[in-house]
Amino acid sequence: MNVRYDTIPSLQAFLDALPEAVRSTRIDPVPPRNHNDWSALMPEAPAALFCPRTTEDIAVLLRAANTHRISVVPQGGLTGLCGGARPVSSGIALSLEKMVGIEEIDPASATITVLAGTPLEVVQNAAAEAGLYFPLDLGARGSCTIGGNASTNAGGNRVIRYGLMRDLVLGLEAVLSNGTVIDATTKLIKNNTGYDLRQLFLGSEGTLGIITRLVLRLQPAPGCTHAALCGMGDYASVLRLLDGARRKLGPTLSAFEVMWPDYWQIACDVPGVRSPLTQQHVFRVLIEAQGTNEAIDSARFTTFLEEMFDDGVLEDAVLSQSLSDIKTFWGVRDACSEFKVTLGPHLAYDVGLPTRQADEFAKACAAAITQAVPGGKSVFYGHVADGNLHLLAWLPGAKYQPAKAFDTAVYSTVREFGGSVSAEHGIGTTKKPYLEHSRTAQEIALMRLIKTALDPNGILNPGKVIDL
């Protein structure tokens, strides 16, 4: 429902308090795309939308919003799945889409300094043009923004080698709820000077401050990439393959993607997806290594696979011969992005578990889903080597999916296994009721204390992650 800003007296006073230069960054009417992110929640129109161009614009907006107690929901590329960027009708949405640009690439420090609204793919391409590499990679790379990646502590496909977003950020600039600008844009790797303030904002989903600028760590561009799709008969073999990869491939191991049989079948039914493995297997694993020397690393990768065959770990494997092959392999793994077309409405989950228990969890969770929703279906896949498992749940033929029943089944099983209700998507609105499944009462109390200290009036992204 649209809420006219002039029906909220404090909002009118807020608008009147803004200088003309900042008031001019308002977009009216609010485009429908700014009513929601990619979550399954119902859209909500904010009372007003601003697209500031500078950090100072944001500081002025937050200063006035804090004075007049106006809620502010920051928005990036709106690709989040947990409702973290969904606005509230009585407040404003603050989109960083105009704060785009690469400010500096420093080869000596191996860093890139970027504005928070810059799309991830733009950052990747800028690094590549400089002969360097920014390793974070997501399916939404062309739409998601680097500030959104930081605020949700995004993970992606290559966490096993390069870490989460919080491992890729050396410094940042952020604006607090009262308009104070925190400039912590250091390029230093070793910076042991008290509290690490950047970590307050990384993963906090805009509830403690709005990230406006980032100093990101770059890596040498990979000299070569090798991949294989492997088939095996049980999860014990998957674990043996992972152990062998860690020992034999060392730091070149960049991805280890596990696909359960039901996922594989549905993925290969997606138009345009080709199955490189023709035999039936219980598990398929996409393994990737990024090296520096084609001759040396190719031989190492091939020898590793041969040893896995000799040890009885692998039933079958297809080794990439070109970049086109690697793209085909990843096409099966990334086919989940098209499941809305092939499956229809469904719910997506992103959980963290001890790697050894992933298959045991999948079996228990599938049973819990079937019990909670008779006729309910589920498929499992994920990075696994970093403890991240994805799953989809749906009731075939149902126009409206029983989200509450599915959520309870999935997150209760996660709690039983001592896992995390969110491995890389954040908490937002949808996972907030289940935060206590993964965090102790003492941890939640400390989170609330930090929120109170940095945002005492509760104006920043209210209702997300944690309440005052």
TrEMBL record:
<dbReference type="InterPro" id="IPR006094">
    <property type="entry name" value="Oxid_FAD_bind_N"/>
</dbReference>
<keyword id="KW-0285">Flavoprotein</keyword>
<dbReference type="InterPro" id="IPR016169">
    <property type="entry name" value="FAD-bd_PCMH_sub2"/>
</dbReference>
<keyword id="KW-0560">Oxidoreductase</keyword>
<dbReference type="InterPro" id="IPR016171">
    <property type="entry name" value="Vanillyl_alc_oxidase_C-sub2"/>
</dbReference>
<dbReference type="InterPro" id="IPR016166">
    <property type="entry name" value="FAD-bd_PCMH"/>
</dbReference>
<dbReference type="InterPro" id="IPR016164">
    <property type="entry name" value="FAD-linked_Oxase-like_C"/>
</dbReference>
<dbReference type="Pfam" id="PF01565">
    <property type="entry name" value="FAD_binding_4"/>
</dbReference>
<comment type="similarity">
    <text>Belongs to the FAD-binding oxidoreductase/transferase type 4 family.</text>
</comment>
<keyword id="KW-0274">FAD</keyword>
<dbReference type="InterPro" id="IPR036318">
    <property type="entry name" value="FAD-bd_PCMH-like_sf"/>
</dbReference>
<protein>
    <submittedName>
        <fullName>FAD-binding oxidoreductase</fullName>
    </submittedName>
</protein>
<feature type="domain" description="FAD-binding PCMH-type">
    <location>
        <begin position="42"/>
        <end position="221"/>
    </location>
</feature>
<dbReference type="InterPro" id="IPR051264">
    <property type="entry name" value="FAD-oxidored/transferase_4"/>
</dbReference>
<dbReference type="InterPro" id="IPR004113">
    <property type="entry name" value="FAD-bd_oxidored_4_C"/>
</dbReference>
<dbReference type="Pfam" id="PF02913">
    <property type="entry name" value="FAD-oxidase_C"/>
</dbReference>
